[in-house]
UniProtKB/TrEMBL annotation:
InterPro entries registered for this protein in UniProt: Dimeric_a/b-barrel (IPR011008), EthD_dom (IPR009799)
Annotated family: Belongs to the tpcK family.
Record-annotated EthD domain positions: 19-114
Disordered, as annotated region: 140-162
Source domain of life: Eukaryota
SUPFAM superfamilies, A to Z: Dimeric alpha+beta barrel
Ranges annotated as biased composition (Polar residues): 144-162
Protein's name according to its UniProt entry: EthD domain-containing protein
Length: 162
């Protein structure tokens, strides 16, 4: 029997850029200044993965066209960027949020990030194809992750036990 896989938690926070900035100016700030500094803080506190998903107007237009072709049932997210964190426990994120260097970095966001209509999601990731290969399935094709009930409890104590 395959060992039970530990799920990674994913928290994603979607932001819009300040209306005074172009998409290019926002991307420049995010990648050249903010991300480089934030990455060191996140790694220091044990975050497994940290990245930004950029969603420019051209991509949203393409998604809207695809949506029309597929029957128009999607709601197209209009946020400029979604920051993604992958971690093994919420303690890791709590440590980042308490870090004085991270707090100072967040205070510097104000002229770049709008601060309005921020959307956050928290859940876990189950990976079934990685590097073009099927993964995390036993020989019979059943997932090797733990049951839903154990994973769906996001109390601090339960998440830390995963």
């Amino acid at each position: 029997m395959s060992p039970v896989k530990q799920r990674l938690l994913r928290i994603a926070v979607a932001h819009n850029r300040s209306p005074s900035l172009s998409e290019e100016e926002f991307h420049q700030w995010a990648t050249k200044d903010h991300c480089a500094r934030a990455a060191r803080i996140h790694a220091r506190h044990g975050i497994q993965s940290y990245g930004m998903f950029f969603n420019p107007e051209s991509a949203r237009a393409t998604a809207k066209n695809l949506n029309r072709q597929l029957g128009g049932r999607w709601t197209i997210d209009d946020h400029d960027v979604t920051v993604e964190f992958y971690l093994h426990s919420l303690d890791k994120l709590t440590a980042v949020l308490a870090d004085p260097e991270f707090k100072a970095l967040q205070e510097e966001e104000e002229p770049y990030v709008s601060g309005e209509n921020i959307i956050a999601t928290l859940g876990w990731v189950e990976t079934y194809v990685q590097d073009g290969q099927v993964v995390n399935l036993d020989p019979e094709g059943a997932p090797t992750y733990s049951s839903f009930g154990k994973s769906a409890d996001f109390s601090q104590e339960q998440v830390n036990q995963e």
